């Protein structure tokens, strides 16, 4: 047990060090998110009423795209330089290592989105209630995206044209998260209460936490053949 | 050990190939035998709907196609999982043989659904939970096939897409229960195990006949495809060369 | 019921026949594609079996 | 200890080898020989459990490595064409992390000593990407000093190394064999291992 | 002169072969574009009036993001496997080779967007006039994006966290293109005529064609030191 | 022909070498020696004009290579650690494209012959990514058969090659020198070039 947590902690620490070493890489996701959200008013025009309707959708779509793009970095670097190969050969259970990598990846590419989203929501004139639910829905939803994404990223490692494939594989599974995430904010703004949506997102998170590390680990072993 | 050998005898591509060849005509004929009365019931026996008029006749292919799209996925995922766990080649070949047909039925469910939606709801498409999840199912099929095609090594391709198929299974209950869980435009199940059908008997019969026809068709086509798949993957094996020489 | 009435489907002809037609087309095309795939495959394998498979055997060595 | 029976390897349309049998006892080194593309790397990856063989079995202490999994990995160190070195991390960090994941305790001074032995003294804190090709390879090889596994599987360990480094690695191998370890390696250069038994397999025509 | 066109043609043919070889890679950009444009209705809701207002902005922002993401692929692959190094050492003038690479890149990642944009515009219920101007503005605008992007991509080759950096460098130069591109469609839909906007985009294109290959070539030499 | 005067190389905080002078005449081979990390790769990249020296000058036929640029590149072939092989293209396509860009005419049969000479007959149409490490390196080396440049700059051309391939490359070098070509190379293996003059530079302490 202690060796498991030690391995988990080691992987998380490693990936975070790496991310900080190439700090710009971390910022990419965040920056991308901010750009997507902020470019829209530029393209669409500045009417507040339209913007407010769009807000939850735009923020959630941007978050989804940002995490989809960040997926490539989850395993590819390690695959490329042979450290992934080494990871498969350690005496630690692979799902634990995968969970560590996913967690680190989320800390670096998901959490910043959650933290900055309320700020961007203000740009779109969301009410405080809406901002809170937006952040909350992202807090529960983005880990699900990272977990599901890990499976897709692992499956497409080293495959011809991994890029689209990963989107093709992962997107169908992302859409429910998007619908319930954006739906939560909409519901709270129209006074219906976001409870139901948020608890469903929570259920997704639980399911993904239990299943995804195993699936991704199996996928990694297959991809490294 | 003896049991294992027995098992592998039946699941070996070499013995299955001629067996499948013999089964295809039977299923093809059965498909035809279900289709003809099915069409007769759909157009001439079932009465027009008091609300929808004649448009509801789309149901006789829409519903069976929608069922097939989900059933085939489950069967495919089952075979894929079996291939992954038991490492049997035939199972993964069956999985990849079912995928295109499943994708086709998914497409048909979407197509007939939107042709039905236009007169009934006034829109080709709405972002309703069931419609969206059926669309997701189509993406899952396409993803499965693309992943399979993108990997050169057939064994690796089969194993990787098996993982994907198994992960995608979570979508099936979402599609099935979507109408129950959320209040949506799409209508709920009218046939449940507990209550039986809640529609006119002739409509029910028509639907069942068409569903059986689709089933038989699917089996026939899947067997045809798995035979091609077997030949392609085992083309270097001795028995294929012999069979070819024998066929000459 | 006469024929044109039957085809009109109470004004919903386009939708109903659009559905049935495309379904029939899909099924037929799928079967046709499969038959073609099988034919070309058999041709190719036939050609392969005539070329003796010495090449593969040459590469087996330990 | 390690037994390989009836192994077959297929890549694409090509059967690289089939019906391969060998076994390896403590203190023995197996040198896999063969021309470029004869399947040496493929064999090594099978033996360390990364690829599943098309046919045949690999047993460690009598049990199949497929069922042993993590228990087998405890005893194996693999060094491939790719060194498994993160370019952004320093040599020191690279080694500490790989040791920790391998489940061995590697205090800083021990790692520094290992790097020193491989001629990287004073370069412990450079990020690996500024190191020269040979220096990167040395960092990867320093893992051998830190792990205490019994089976080493080394794919061309001597590439990019200068004469001095080759000497160091050869000493390392001798000592490992002397202590009852086992080694499987490929190399196109001459190997000169004084201690232990050296056996050879030749792949290809 | 003939050797110049031969070299240009060789590079274009090579890059297109490569793109077709990993077909999925080409599709990534297109798929991404289609996804971004189609996800919005999912997040924002299906009201046609809102969607129509958003349309030019959404399509242009999506095109901009898609080309920004495709930039990474412009030189990185060649850098990674040493073929770029070899290209710098050929007896051909580098700007010609760069122009060839940019052109191939646009054919593969820009042109498909132009062709599919009208289809996506229909989803948003744009009038035929609007669809035409949308396609036209993209046809003139996307090459500018590729040309400007080439400079950014060349400057950030092998630099820590090239990802954000490239967006940071390139985005300020992209925004005018976005504003005039989306502006052209808006103007045509509100009956003002898109002439002025389009000719400005044309001027951008001309300027970029003249300057960008030289700048990118210089940047490449610096990056390879 | 090639003259290097007072060359200095600085990497990071480290001055790898300074005040280096040498010149190379037709028919001569320069073997750059040195331990790992002594600056061999850095020197070679300077000589072929990829990096600017911190100090000093490199002249080709009396003119600085900085001012010659494309005219110098016409006479040079460089082979680095990275082979410059596109993984998605086949061996054949790789060579045809690199020849075309180098401005030499390489009809298909000539390229096939070159590949055959390097032992890749029958593998011309495999995408490079399925080739083994040594086979990839052979593809890169086949360029030497197709180019007709006078100065070859080769960074560890023998890595990953088996004995047969090393022999082929050595023959190639002999012949090039015999025809009045020039070669600069680094390698940690023994070089054995019968024809031409071999000179050595030792880098490092
Ligand atoms: C693109 C649009 C549509 C899609 C993707 C779709 C999808 C589905 C699916 C997946 C099922 C099977 C679920 C089950 O067995 O419970 C189904 C059944 C059904 N659909 Fe649709 N549908 C669409 C449009 C429509 C429209 C427009 C109507 C009618 C107005 C309709 C009426 C029905 C009916 C009556 C059933 C049978 C339900 C039952 O009795 O179990 N569908 N549809
Ligand atoms: N998809 C494929 N189709 C055909 N041949 C393939 C395919 N994949 C791999 N090969 C062949 O398999 C062999 C791989 O061998 P491997 O990498 O094990 O060689 P190696 O003995 O390690 O060689 P080296 O000494 O060059 O490292 C090569 O000959 C390669 O051409
Ligand atoms: N930023 C830096 N800071 C400190 N040292 C550096 C930096 N960049 C490079 N170096 C050093 O410069 C040297 C690079 O040498 P180079 O790659 O030319 O070696 P080489 O002689 O080709 O070695 P090898 O035989 O291993 O290929 C290494 O010793 C490396 O540690
Ligand atoms: Mg090898
Ligand atoms: Mg070097």
How does this structure look, described?
The complex is a heterohexamer, with two copies of chain A (225 residues), one copy of chain B (248 residues), one copy of chain C (62 residues) and two copies of chain D (205 residues). With 225 residues, chain A is mostly helical. Chain A has helices at 2-21, 23-44, 48-80, 83-88, 94-109, 111-123, 128-155, 162-189, 195-223. The two termini of chain A are 29 Å apart. With 62 residues, chain C is mainly alpha-helical. Chain C contains three helices and no strands. Chain C has helices at residues 3-8, 13-50, 54-58. The radius of gyration of chain C is 25 Å and the shape is rod-shaped. The model of chain C is unreliable at 52-62 (pLDDT under 50). Chain D is of the alpha/beta class. Helix content of chain D is 33%, strand content 28%. Chain D has a five-stranded parallel β-sheet with strand order 6-7-8-3-9, sandwiched between helices. Chain D is globular. At the A-E interface, helix 2, helix 3 and helix 8 of A face helix 2, helix 3 and helix 8 of E. The complex binds protoporphyrin IX containing FE, adenosine-5'-triphosphate (ATP) (2 copies) and magnesium ion (2 copies). One adenosine-5'-triphosphate sits between chains F (11-14, 16, 34, 36-42) and D (123, 126, 130-135, 160). Residues 40-41, 155 of chain F line the site of one magnesium ion.
Summarize the structure in short.
Chain A has helices at 2-21, 23-44, 48-80, 83-88, 94-109, 111-123, 128-155, 162-189, 195-223.
Q: Which features would summarize this protein structure in a list?
A:
B: 248 residues, mainly alpha, 2 strands, 78% helix, 2% strand, D: 205 residues, alpha/beta, 7 helices, binds protoporphyrin IX containing FE, binds adenosine-5'-triphosphate, binds magnesium ion
> What Rg of chain A do the Cα atoms give?
18 Å
Percent of residues in helices of chain C: over 70%
Query: End-to-end span of chain C in angstroms?
Result: 79 Å
Q: Determine the strand fraction of chain A and express it as a percent band.
A: under 5%
> How many structural domains in the coordinates of chain A?
1
Shape of chain A: elongated
Enumerate how many helices of chain A there are, as a single number.
Answer: 9
Q: Helix/strand/pairing class of chain A, anyone?
A: mainly alpha
Helix content of chain A: over 70%
| Order of helix and strand elements from N to C terminus of chain A | HHHHHHHHH
Query: How many β-strands of chain A, per DSSP?
Result: 0
Task: Name the beta content range of chain C.
Answer: under 5%
The total count of strands of chain C amounts to 0
Mean pLDDT of chain A, rounded to whole units? 87
Largest interface: A-E, 44 and 42 residues
User: What is the average per-residue confidence, as pLDDT of chain C, rounded to a whole number?
Assistant: 75
Cα-based radius of gyration of chain C, to the nearest Å = 25 Å
N- to C-terminal distance of chain A: 29 Å
Tell me, briefly, the overall form of chain C. rod-shaped
């Amino acid at each position: 047990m202690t060796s498991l947590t030690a391995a988990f902690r080691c992987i998380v620490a490693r990936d975070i060090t790496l991310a900080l070493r190439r700090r710009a890489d971390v910022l990419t996701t965040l920056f991308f998110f901010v750009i997507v959200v902020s470019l829209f008013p530029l393209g669409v025009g500045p009417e507040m009423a339209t913007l407010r309707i769009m807000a939850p959708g735009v923020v959630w779509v941007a978050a989804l795209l940002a995490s989809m793009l960040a997926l490539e970095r989850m395993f590819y670097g390690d695959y490329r330089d042979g450290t992934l190969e080494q990871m498969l050969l350690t005496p630690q259970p692979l799902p634990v290592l995968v969970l560590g990598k996913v967690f680190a990846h989320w800390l670096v590419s998901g959490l910043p989105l959650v933290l900055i989203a309320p700020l961007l929501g203000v740009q779109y004139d969301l009410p405080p209630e809406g901002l809170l639910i937006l952040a909350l829905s992202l807090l529960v939803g983005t880990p699900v995206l990272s977990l599901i994404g890990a499976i897709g990223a692992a499956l497409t490692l080293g495959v011809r044209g991994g890029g689209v494939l990963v989107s093709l594989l992962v997107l169908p599974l992302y859409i429910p998260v998007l619908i319930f995430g954006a739906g939560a904010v909409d519901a709270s703004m129209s006074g219906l209460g976001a409870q139901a949506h948020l608890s469903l997102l929570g259920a997704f998170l639980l399911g993904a936490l239990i299943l995804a590390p195993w699936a991704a680990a199996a996928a990694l072993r297959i991809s490294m053949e | 050990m003896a049991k294992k050998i027995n098992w592998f005898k039946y699941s070996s591509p070499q013995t299955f190939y001629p067996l499948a060849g013999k089964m295809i005509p039977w299923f093809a004929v059965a498909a035809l035998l279900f289709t003809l009365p099915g069409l007769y019931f759909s157009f001439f026996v079932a009465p027009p709907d008091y609300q929808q008029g004649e448009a509801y006749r789309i149901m006789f292919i829409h519903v069976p196609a929608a069922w097939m799209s989900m059933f085939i996925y489950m069967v495919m995922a089952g075979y894929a999982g079996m291939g992954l766990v038991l490492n049997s080649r035939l199972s993964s070949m069956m999985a990849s043989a079912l995928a295109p047909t499943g994708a086709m039925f998914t497409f048909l469910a979407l197509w007939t659904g939107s042709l039905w939606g236009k007169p009934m709801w006034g829109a080709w498409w709405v972002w309703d939970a069931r419609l969206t999840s059926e669309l997701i199912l189509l993406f899952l099929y396409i993803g499965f096939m693309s992943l399979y095609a993108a990997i050169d090594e057939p064994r690796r391709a089969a194993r990787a897409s098996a993982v994907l198929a198994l992960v995608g299974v979570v979508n099936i209950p979402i599609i099935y229960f979507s109408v129950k869980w959320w209040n949506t435009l799409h209508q709920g199940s009218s046939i449940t195990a507990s209550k039986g059908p809640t529609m006119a008997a002739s409509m029910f019969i028509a639907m069942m006949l068409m569903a059986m026809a689709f089933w038989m068709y699917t089996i026939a086509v899947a067997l045809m495809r798995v035979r091609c798949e077997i030949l392609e993957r085992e083309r270097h094996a001795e028995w294929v060369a012999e069979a070819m020489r024998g066929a000459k | 019921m006469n024929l044109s009435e039957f085809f009109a489907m109470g004004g919903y002809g386009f939708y109903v026949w659009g559905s049935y037609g495309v379904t029939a087309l899909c099924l037929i095309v799928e079967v046709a594609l499969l038959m073609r795939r099988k034919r070309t495959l058999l041709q190719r394998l036939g050609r392969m079996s005539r070329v003796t498979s010495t090449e593969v055997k040459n590469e087996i060595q330990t | 200890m390690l037994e390989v029976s009836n192994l077959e390897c297929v890549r694409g349309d090509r059967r690289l080898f089939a019906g391969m049998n060998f076994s390896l006892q403590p203190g023995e080194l197996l040198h896999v020989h063969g021309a470029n593309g004869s399947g040496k790397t493929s064999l090594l990856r099978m033996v360390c459990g990364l690829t599943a063989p098309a046919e045949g079995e690999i047993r460690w202490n009598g049990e199949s490595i497929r069922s042993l999994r993590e228990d087998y990995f405890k005893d194996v160190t693999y060094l491939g064409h790719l060194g498994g070195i993160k370019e952004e991390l320093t040599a020191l960090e690279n080694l500490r992390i790989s040791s920790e994941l391998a489940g061995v305790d590697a205090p800083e001074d021990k790692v520094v000593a290992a790097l020193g032995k491989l001629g990287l003294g004073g370069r412990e804190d450079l990020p690996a990407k500024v190191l020269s090709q040979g220096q990167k390879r040395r960092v990867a090889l320093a893992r051998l000093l830190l792990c205490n596994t019994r089976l080493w599987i080394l794919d061309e360990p001597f590439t990019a190394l200068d004469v001095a480094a080759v000497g160091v690695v050869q000493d390392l191998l001798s000592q490992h064999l002397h202590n009852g370890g086992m080694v499987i390696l490929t190399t196109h250069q001459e190997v000169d291992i004084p201690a232990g038994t050296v056996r050879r397999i030749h792949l290809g025509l």
